[in-house]
Amino acid sequence: MQKRLTVILFFVISFAYAQKKPLDHSVYDTWESVGSKQLSNNGQWAMYSILQQEGDAQLYLTNVKTNTRINVPRGMNAQFSNDSKFAVFNIRPLNKDLRQAKLKKKKPDELPKDSLGIANLTSNAVTKVARVKSFKFPEEGAGVLAYLTEKPDTAHKTMKPAEKKDGETDFADDEPTGKAKTEEGTDLVVKNLLTGTDKTFKFVTDYYFSKDGKQLVFTCSGSKKDKTAPQGVFLLHTEKGTLKTLIKGKGSFKNFTFDEESEHVAFVGEQSPEKQEIKNYNIYYNSLTIDTAQILVDFDMPGLPDKWSVNGDGKINFSKDGKKLFFGISPIKKPKDTTIVDFEVAKVDVWNYKDDYLQPMQLKNAERDSKKSYLSVIDVYSSDPKVIPLTDTKLPDANIIAEGDAAQVLASTDYGRRIESQWSGSTSKDYFLVDTKTGQKKKIIENLNGYAMASPAGNYILYFDRKSGSWNTYNITSGKVTVLTAGLTEKFVDEENDVPDLPSAYGLATWTEGDKAVLINDKYDIWSFSPDGKSAPKNITAGFGRANHITFRYENVQPGRIERNTNKFVKANELVWLSAFNNLTKENGFYRTNVGSAKAPELVVMAKFKYSGLTKAKDADIYIYDKASYVESPNVYITTDFKTETKLSNTNPQQKNYNWGTAELVKWTTPKGFQAEGILYKPENFDPNKKYPMIAYFYEKLTDGLYTYQPPAPTPSRLNISYFVSNGYLVFVPDISYETGHPGKSAVEYINSGVESLKKNSWVDGNKIGIQGQSWGGYQVAYLITQNNMYAAAWAGAPVVNMTSAYGGIRWETGMNRQFQYEKTQSRIGATLWEKPELYIENSPLFMLPKVNTPVVIMANDADGAVPWYQGIEMFTALRRLGKPVWMLNYNGEAHNLVQRQNRKDIQIREQQFFDYYLKGAKAPAWMTSGIPATEKGKTWGFELTDDKP
């Protein structure tokens, strides 16, 4: 009887699996993912968005106590008010409406625009406002909202000046002269959410709240058609309703900032003549006791270097105590020579061996460099104010210390060492403390290969030295240097570094309040160091991580605004959250520990899931996060303790209708005796009595993502894992470790041995195995098929096949030379071409292509900014010359990884058709059999299946 029940159950399960469909290419657009998520400050409301790949998002607000839910179709970019009484968000147009407008080739101003949604969390009512381009809440103030509208639908038509409505504010007349220099502004609405009243200000282009929300500064452009339209900068007191004119007249004003107490405002602006090419920017300042804005810094301010001026693109900000104002200056640009006749002069790039950077890099960064600003400071309250330049062209970079309250800034430079970035990929730097009162510079660190940063309270400079692998502090007061990690047997650098360069650090966790301790990561655990070196280092996770192969990392769960320097430290005995990752099982979770203790951390949760975005409500002990696995779609959860959790979302319910899959960790020993591991994905309806084709996909190490959800999606060129698994393939993802000088042989060592290990299973069809890789993975595909004939089909995306020609090329996306990649990083040769030419040849598939018998598709795009697309051409033309089956896809104007969605969809179909033909015996498509002549480009794509052979 028991046997009969077992048989019946087996057939029931088999029948259930049989009813599930394989994924097809039509499922992508509506497949969902979790967007942003957050909790109201009081913890009573959770808000999250569910996105579609190409469709309409959904925004959900859930009352965690009453389970009341507000659903906002197409809601995005949501924020709670500081008092937790309101939520505000954009409402996007319907995706189909946007598509139709684009099909009709409408201009940007004519496209459907976002609306604004305001949810009252007391009444649950949602108010909508049409055509809103942006909105802002103050950081801490309550009850006030500002939003800027789009132009009206009839903006392109000739209109009479609109009559003022109730609530619109009158401005003093300002006679506009000349042609408007910038686009006209639109309506700014300032709304009191508690009373429902609002005020409208016309022709506003930019606006900014003070921290407490009591002050709102904005600038108005004026109007070409309405001479009474406001122009200038205005300051609204949002509680009193009073309006102050800071600047009257046309100009360009931006980069507004308030001090910490919301009593002082500063900004950059210019009122130069309309046709003047080089504008004269000033720094403007205003306080509660001053009626109009005063020019704080102009072109002839004492201390400003000769032929320098205020930089209009530089960020400005007050020190936390409000006594100093930091801003940017730069050399005055040369105006264009209007006497030059374009067709009479040469257009030439002159490459000089003494240049700091190669011409392609200079050209790539020309616009950014033309806007480069150099940090300076002024004492706001000085009776003899002057500009104190803190940086210059030879010392270009600086960061403020202790939110600007410190007497110095930390400046750095790689001047004189920039050329070496061509082959090293980075440069060593000198670090200086620069006095904010005198501008005097003091060198504190020389020739550092690593990085340095100031402590939150400004007592120390913490720096990591890659050469010694050590963490160090510099005491700003005494000048004493302390090597924090000296004498410890544990390493604080990458223990598995396999590139021919110095290993990187595991990183900084955080500081404790008052700079009493700094917390630093090793591979597994977190250490507490006294920055003055007077106390012995303490392992705050008590070595539990290393003993159990669990990597702990500090998890900042507090919502905060990084730009305000919040959450930069923890209290001395604070109970903090730690993310946890088991390196053996790949499970994820959370622990808690007291940063002042040296005890093993307390387990909260460890599971076969991937957790993301753990965030606590500001004023309540409730947390929001999302979790997923390969089998379970990501969803949003809330909890107070992880002992119980409430699932808020239900993404991708349609997944249950499809034959999904499973993910498992597999291990094997390589021919040289290395212990190796990888992920094996199997179809949900896997039957061990059947034989399955298999595709190996690889890129460095990927097993840490064992529990990562793999949505069916048109990828940039990676393997669409869930699609192939659903369609009856096994997918194998091996980790690879590399030997310097022999990356190709390393790929053979790990990938081929992993495949051979799996072929021992009767359910793997050893004659139907393919390989797929993109970029570095594409290189390895090209290399592997030169070594033997074990693969029935191969797909190489953006491969390098000739390291000798690629070595000296340019990465056009950045303008950098490619030498560093071979000498120091991923390509792992570890020597120049002239030092070890034999290694470049050994690792170049091009020289071994006569051995290739595996059919291969190459993707090489003509706008690839990382790998020169001629590498794909070299591979294709060589294999074509040798009479080997080879195809190449060049997506016109596309990048290294496909960006345009239509191209991503296209490559999914071709990849499926290619592997289906060689691994499943399906019919071949026309693009493989007869190709697509250039005369038919854009008319046919060759997807139709034929009875012909490639």
What does this entry show, briefly?
This protein has 950 residues and is an alpha+beta fold.
User: What is the CA–CA distance across the termini?
Assistant: 55 Å
- Rg, Cα atoms, Å: 31 Å
Q: What's the pLDDT, averaged over the residues?
A: 94
Question: Into which percentage range does the β-strand content fall?
Answer: 25-35%
H/I helix tally: 15
Strand order of the largest sheet: 46-47-49-48-50-51-54-55
- The level of helicity is 10-25%
Largest sheet: 8 strands, mixed
- The shape, in one word, is globular
Unreliable spans:
3-13, 155-181, 561-566
Structural class: alpha+beta
Number of strand segments = 57
InterPro entries: AB_hydrolase_fold, Peptidase_S9_cat
Domain Peptidase S9 prolyl oligopeptidase catalytic: 741-920
Organism: Pedobacter sp. KACC 23697
Protein name: Prolyl oligopeptidase family serine peptidase
Characteristics of this structure?
950 residues, alpha+beta, 8-stranded mixed beta sheet, 7-stranded antiparallel beta sheet, 15 helices, 57 strands, 33% strand, globular, disordered N terminus
What's the structural blueprint in terms of helices and strands?
Blueprint: H1 2-18, E1 32-39, E2 45-52, E3 58-63, E4 69-73, E5 75-80, E6 86-91, H2 95-103, E7 115-120, E8 126-129, E9 132-136, E10 144-149, E11 186-192, E12 198-209, E13 215-221, E14 231-237, E15 243-248, E16 252-258, E17 264-270, E18 282-287, E19 294-297, E20 308-310, E21 317-318, E22 324-331, H3 359-364, H4 366-370, E23 374-379, E24 388-389, E25 397-400, E26 408-413, H5 421-424, E27 429-435, E28 441-448, E29 450-454, E30 460-465, E31 470-475, E32 481-483, E33 508-512, E34 518-521, E35 526-529, E36 538-539, H6 544-548, E37 550-555, E38 569-570, E39 575-582, E40 588-594, E41 602-607, E42 610-616, E43 623-628, E44 635-639, E45 646-647, E46 661-669, E47 675-683, E48 692-697, H7 721-726, E49 730-734, H8 743-759, E50 764-774, H9 776-784, E51 793-797, H10 803-806, E52 810-811, E53 816-817, H11 819-823, H12 837-842, E54 856-859, H13 870-881, E55 886-889, H14 901-920, E56 924-925, H15 926-929, E57 945-946
Parallel strand pairs: 33-38, 48-49, 48-50, 50-51, 51-54, 54-55
Antiparallel strand pairs: 1-2, 2-3, 3-4, 5-6, 6-7, 7-8, 9-10, 10-11, 11-12, 12-13, 13-14, 14-15, 16-17, 17-18, 18-19, 20-22, 21-22, 22-23, 23-24, 25-26, 26-27, 27-28, 29-30, 30-31, 31-32, 33-34, 34-35, 35-36, 37-39, 39-40, 40-41, 42-43, 43-44, 44-45, 46-47, 47-49, 52-53, 56-57
